[in-house]
Amino acid sequence: SPLKLIVDSRKGMVVLGWNRWLHAKMDEENHKWWVVVSIPFWRKRYPAKDLMILQKLASEKAPPEKDSQNGRSKFSWRKFRRLLRCIKIVDFQWELDTDDYIWNAYLTPVFQLLNRKRGVQTHVNFYGKNEIRIVAHTRMINMLKASMY
After folding, report:
1. pTM of the complete model
2. I need a labelling partner for 110 at 20 to 30 A (CA). Which of 58, 67, 68, 81 fits?
């Protein structure tokens, strides 16, 4: 069952969902960010500011893990690259205005070349609209395989 991530600046939301059963959504309402967690027959809203404070407290308590050999953290670029490879971008929409007519004119043919790929819509506009929407899918088993090796 696919794991789905939607980032939409037009609606001001970020959604992470798993097969219609579990959804976590960050939503902006009245200049305040909310995290909404929902499963069938249950929904709970949390202010995002409170979750940031909890994360800050947790990071103060636990020191970062260090590798015993040379004092470096256990972050692996190879593993990170494998995790990125198992994510498939299904829909990508980007509208850009640089507030400079000359740069917009230079970028128009470049964005037209990007439109040739399926699922990609890029536009340069001249009326101050900057928006992005990304829809990405992956499968949980692929993420587990990529993180193990």
Report:
1. 0.71
2. 81
